Each structure stands twice: as structure tokens, then as C-alpha cells.
Amino acid sequence: MATFPVSSLRNLPNYGSISHEVPICLAEDGPAKDEVQDFLDGGLAAWLTVFGAFLALFCSFGQMNAFGTYQSWYTTHQLQDMHPSTVAWIGSVQLWVFFFSVRAASDRPRARRSFFSPAFALQGGFIGRMFDMYGPRAIMTLGTTVYVASILLTSVAGSYTQYILAQGVLSGLGVGMLYATRSYHNRARHSSSMTTTGLFTPFCFVVSYATDNNVDPTTAFYVLALLNLTSVIGRIAPAHFADAFGRFTLLVPCAFLAGLSTLLLWSTAHTLAQLLAYAAMYGLFSGAFNALIVPCIAQISDIREIGMRIGLLYSIISFP
């Protein structure tokens, strides 16, 4: 709707009958103007958001990446009478609850469907539904409370079942709530690389594997520390190369090399030096893969479907 003053219509035949401004509707044949962005993309405020996401996931998702430390401790202390594969179910349940419940919500509002609707399970889990219905602030607050409660309850757990419920179920829910409340920007490859982490099986078992190969327990933890350190490098460095070479171009070799290092290095490693070499290589390439996978999905998806597609991916990942 546009408004033209009377002075601009003096040459019209019926000008005498016009005594006020006339609203005129104009139909534009060109493309509609771009929608105003509803998120910060660049500048101090946007990068402070990224830093806040890093802090949230450092305390939550990072703890899940360090489960190998818990695995080694439990098998020699509180749960020493149980087989290591049984103890590993604590971390497995934690990861399953996290992946199956979370859906990284998109930046566009969705219809508020019931938690019991058929689309609910297919679109990533109830945490994503809660995000769409109540927004990020409420979910972040609840997630922080749940996660802190899980740590407190884990510290006083005295049986295997209590560890499963506290560190497995409750912690997975808390991390899922913190992880779901995020946006996708034009610089998603950078922000995602700074707030995500690597893949999980070696993170859970590399310490136990080292001690089983006669590596001193006080030294075996350095293998996991190196794995996490190189994973940080892998999450940050390839993101910059993605600008020049493309995200899919980097994703494929990183996934291949992460798997190859596990097949060739971990399966044949029996000394501390060999395990450290494997940890460095796997951490680098697995970190790069996990940092690039979400931006790759965002690249080929409509912004209204990003959340659903990532939810489907994580739901599939949650099953072994």
C-alpha cells in the first residue's frame, strides 16, 4: 500500500473530485524483499552468544566426551565387581537419551503440536517441541537445573541402577536441553565448530584400553586429554578452510580418515606412544567431522526444515 499526495495527481482528468491523499495499491512484479533477520549474525553480541554456547557445552557435552575417565574409575572403584562392558552402558544410555531427545530447533516458528502427535517422534524429540513452544530461555534454565541435579545425584549414587538413572538418563536430558537451544546463521560453520565436539566410542574406552595394555593408570588419562585437545583443534581449524573449499569437500575426507585411523592405529596400538599417535589423529579428524556435519545439513535444507532433519539424524545416531 503506497500513499501519493494530491499535488502529484493534478494532471488527472478527475482531479477536481480529489480533495485528499489517495491510497493506491501497487503490485510489484519483482521478488519480494528479504525478510528481516531475526537473529544476530556478526558483531560482538553474536560472538558473545557463541562464547556462551561454548561455555554451556564445555560443562555438559564436554563431560560426556570425558566418560572414559568415569569408565576407568568406576571399573576400579564403585562398580569394580561389574564387567567393563556393563559399566559402559552408563555412557551409552547418556548418549542415547541425549541424541534421541534433542532436536536442534530451526529459527522459524512451527505449529504447536501435541507431544503425542505422530510427527513428534519423527521430528527429533520432545526437547525440540519444548523449544518451539516455550523458547530458549525457559529450556536453558530447566536444562541447567536438570544437569546440575544429575551431577549432585551421581556424586551420591551407590548402585549401578542409580548411576544409570542419574548420570545416564538425567544427565542426557540436561545436556539435550542445553544443546537444543541454538540457531543457524550464515556463519554456521564457525559457530558450530566452536560449540560442538567429536565422536564418542574412543572417548569412552581409550583410557580402559590403555590400562589393559599395561599403561600406568595415572598416565593413561593423558591419552584422553590429548584426544580432546586435538578434537578442539579439529573443530576450529577446518571451519576456516570450509569457506574456501566447501563444507562437503572437507567432510568426506575427515570422516574417512577418522574411521581409517581407528581401524589401522587403535586396533594395533599396544604402547603409550602408539595410543598417543592414534588419539592425536582421531581427535583431529573426528572433531572436524562433527563440526561440519550440521552446517552441511543446513546447507542443503530449507531453514524451516533444518531442525527436523538434524533431529532425524540424531535420532538415527542414537541407535547403535
TrEMBL record:
- This chain's source organism reads Trametes pubescens (White-rot fungus)
Cellular component per GO, a single term: membrane
Give the main location. Answer: membrane
- Name of this protein: Riboflavin transporter MCH5
Q: Mention one GO molecular function.
A: transmembrane transporter activity
Keyword hit for Transmembrane helix:
yes
**Where does the UniProt annotation locate this protein?**
Membrane
**Membrane topology value:** Multi-pass membrane protein
For this UniProt record, the keywords arranged alphabetically read as follows: Membrane, Transmembrane, Transmembrane helix
State which residue ranges cross the membrane.
Answer: 44-66, 86-105, 138-157, 163-181, 193-211, 217-236, 248-269, 275-298
Superkingdom as given in the UniProt entry: Eukaryota
Give the family per the record. Belongs to the major facilitator superfamily. Monocarboxylate porter (TC 2.A.1.13) family.
Q: Which PANTHER family does the record associate with it?
A: MONOCARBOXYLATE TRANSPORTER, RIBOFLAVIN TRANSPORTER MCH5
